[in-house]
């Protein structure tokens, strides 16, 4: 039997990508119930191939005993496009189909304190606008309380 392809979903994180893998379904039944590959093989191996501008890089083979699992590929260049393909094999079955390529752009690291600086800037701008409006009102240009003398109208 040929294993695969697995379902692969990737999302970006700062300088990394998160790869979620769902094992391929098996067509084997036991007692009328569809068995998972974990039921059959107990442990599976998966190979992740990472493709970028630098070419293809096959990562070290890992093992899993879960139907759905995630792994994070770290130390990537920010704002660079990466593609991932996953191949799932068993120790007793090396016949497998890789997943189609999934691509995503690695997120860039947010600058520390950026959010706080943006909020502080907005508060300062608001205070300046309020002060200017208060001065203009005090000078009598807006919301005049007194009516002008008839001769100035």
Automatic annotation (TrEMBL):
| GO terms of molecular function | interleukin-22 receptor activity
Name a GO CC annotation attached to this entry.
Answer: plasma membrane
Q: Name one Pfam family in it.
A: Interfer-bind
Stretches of the chain forming a coiled coil according to its record: none
Q: Which InterPro entries match?
A: FN3_sf (IPR036116), Ig-like_fold (IPR013783), Interferon/interleukin_rcp_dom (IPR015373), Type-II_Cytokine-TF_Rcpt (IPR050650)
SUPFAM superfamilies from the xrefs?
A: Fibronectin type III
PANTHER family membership? INTERFERON ALPHA_BETA RECEPTOR 2 (PTHR20859:SF84), INTERFERON/INTERLEUKIN RECEPTOR (PTHR20859)
Instruction: Kindly provide the name given to this protein in its UniProt entry.
Output: INRA2 protein
Q: Which organism is it from?
A: Climacteris rufus (rufous treecreeper)
């Amino acid at each position: 039997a040929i294993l695969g392809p697995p379902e692969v979903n990737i999302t970006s994180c700062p300088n990394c990508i998160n790869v979620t893998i769902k094992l391929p379904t098996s067509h084997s039944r036991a007692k009328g119930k569809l068995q998972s590959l974990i039921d059959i093989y107990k442990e599976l191996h998966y190979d992740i191939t990472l493709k970028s501008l630098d070419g293809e890089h096959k990562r070290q083979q890992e093992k899993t005993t879960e139907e759905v699992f995630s792994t994070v590929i770290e130390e990537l260049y920010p704002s660079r496009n990466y593609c991932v393909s996953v191949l799932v094999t068993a120790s007793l079955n090396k016949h497998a189909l890789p997943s189609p390529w999934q691509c995503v752009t690695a997120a860039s690291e947010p600058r520390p304190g950026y959010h706080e600086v943006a909020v502080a800037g907005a508060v300062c701008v608001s205070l300046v606008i309020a002060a200017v409006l208060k001065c203009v009102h005090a000078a009598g240009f807006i919301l005049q309380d007194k009516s002008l003398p008839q001769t100035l109208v």
